[in-house]
Amino acid sequence: MEETLKILVVDDDEVDRMTVRRALTKAGVQMELSEVGNGNDAISALANTNYDCVFLDYRLPDQDGLTLIHKLRSSEIKIPLVVLTGQGDEQIAVELMKAGATDYLSKSRVSSETLAQVLRHALRVHHAEMQVALANQQLRESHELLMRKNQELERQRQQIHLQNLKLLEASRLKSQFLATMSHELRTPMNAIIGFSQILLRPKFGQLTNQQTDMVERILNNGKNLLMLLNEVLDFSRLETGRLELKPELFDLSKVINSTVAEMRSLLEAKKLSLVVQTDLENPLVFNDSVRVRQILVNLLSNAIKFTDSGGIWVEVSELPGNRVAIAVRDTGIGIAAKDFKYIFEAFRQVDQSITRKYPGTGLGLAIIDSLVRMMGGKIILESQLGVGSMFKIELPRQVKLPTTGGDNPALYLDNDEIFCSTQNPHQPHPQSTNKAPVGYPNFKL
Ligand code: ADP
C-alpha cells in the first residue's frame, strides 16, 4: 500500500481506537488517520471527507453498527466499511455483511497483520464492487440507449409501413389509371383502324395514290398504337393480378409456325434470315395459346428490332420433366451482363434516352416475365454485346389452373426465376436435346 490512505476509526473506546492506530502504524500503512467516538460524528465526518476505509466499532453509544451501516449506505456513501465486533457479536456478522459492511473482524483478533490484511481485502473488495457498479451503470445506460434506439426504430418502421401503404395505394391507382386509359383509348383506336380499313376497300371509291398512302399510314400507326395500348393494358392487368390464363389443349408447332409466318414480312423488310426448328415428338400442350403466342411475338419483335443484319432462329424442343422450351436467338446488338437484371423490369430499356434508336414501351419482357411465372416456367437469357442474344422460355407441358380467381397476384409468384448468362447465344447447348417422356396424367398428350 504505497499511497497515503485516509482512514476513519469510529469507536467510543479510546483504548480500542489506540489499538487500531498502533496496529496499522506497525503494519507500515501510510495513512492519515481520523478518529470519532459516535455514529453521528462518523456520519458528518464521512459527509465532509472522502475516506478510503472506515473501521467501525459495532457497539457505539448512540446507535449500533448495523443501524449506522444502513444509514451510510442509504445516503449513498460508498467506502469500504470494516466492522470491529466485540465478544459475542460475531453472530451478527452475516447481518452486517448483508447491510453493506465490506468485512468484519473480532476486536480480540486485532493485530498489525490481521488489520493490514483486512484493510487490503476491504480495499480490493471495494475496488471490485466499484467496478461492478460502474459496469452495471454502463449496462443500464446502454440498455436505456438501446431502448431509445428501439423506440426510434419502431417509429421509423411504422413510418416506413405507412409509406409502403401509401406507395401501394399510389401504385394501385397508377395501375388502375393505366388500365382505364388504355381501355378507353382502345375504343377510338379501333374505330380509326376500322375506318381506315374500310377506306382502303375499293368498293368505297377509288383513292388517289397519295390518299392510299396516307390512309395506309393511318392504319399502320393505328395498329402500332393499339399494340402499345394492349401492352399497357396487359401489364396493368398482370400487375393487379386481374389477368387469368385460359388454358386449352393445342398444337404448339402450329401456333409457332403461324406466329412466325405473321412476322415474316418484318424479317424480310430488314433482310434477316429465319430458321424455325421444331423438334417436338409430341406437339400437344395444355396452356393459354393466346398468351404463348404473345410471348413469342414479343420475343420475335425484340429479336427483329435489335438485329440489323444476320438472322433469327426459333427453336422449339422437348425437355425432361414433361416440359417444352421455346428459344429465340438473334445476331443482334446483344445485352451487356450489367443490364440483365434490369431489362425484365417494367418500363426498363438498356437505352433509356429520349433519342434512342429502338422504339418501344419497355413492357414486353416484363409481360413475358409475368406470363412465364403464371405458367410455372422460367426464362433463360444468354447474351453477348455485339454477338447476339438468346431468350429461352421453359414451360411445363401442362400449366396448372389457378385455384382461386385471378385477384391475387401472389398466386403466381411461386416460380420467379430468370437465368442469365453471358455465354455466346450461338454456341451449342448441352441440355436442350433431351427428350421428355410422352404422356400426362390428366390428358393424352
Ligand atoms: P422494349 O422492346 O419495348 O424496349 P422490352 O421489355 O421488350 O421492351 O425489352 C427491354 C429491353 O431489353 C429493350 O429495350 C432492350 O434494351 C433489351 N432487349 C430485349 N430484347 C433484346 C434483344 N433481342 N437484343 C438486344 N436487346 C434486347
Give me the secondary-structure topology.
Elements: E1 5-10, H1 14-26, E2 31-36, H2 39-48, E3 53-57, H3 65-74, E4 81-85, H4 93-99, E5 103-106, H5 112-200, H6 209-239, E6 248-251, H7 252-269, E7 273-279, E8 284-287, H8 289-305, E9 311-319, E10 323-330, H9 364-374, E11 378-384, E12 388-396, E13 418-421
Parallel strand pairs: 1-2, 1-3, 3-4, 4-5, 7-9, 11-13
Antiparallel strand pairs: 6-8, 9-10, 10-12, 11-12
Helix pairs in contact: 1-5, 5-6, 6-9, 7-8, 8-9
Structure description:
Helix 7 packs parallel to helix 8 (289-305). The protein is an alpha/beta fold and 445 residues long. The chain folds into four domains: 5-110, Response regulator (Rossmann fold, 3-Layer(aba) Sandwich), CATH 3.40.50; 171-240; 248-399, Heat Shock Protein 90 (2-Layer Sandwich), CATH 3.30.565.10; 401-445, no CATH class. A hairpin with a 3-residue loop joins strand 9 (311-319) and strand 10. It has helices spanning 14-26, 39-48, 65-74, 93-99, 112-200, 209-239, 252-269, 289-305, 364-374, and strands at residues 5-10, 31-36, 53-57, 81-85, 103-106, 248-251, 273-279, 284-287, 311-319, 323-330, 378-384, 388-396, 418-421. The chain contains nine helices and 13 strands. Bound molecules: adenosine-5'-diphosphate. Adenosine-5'-diphosphate (ADP) binds next to helix 8 and helix 9.
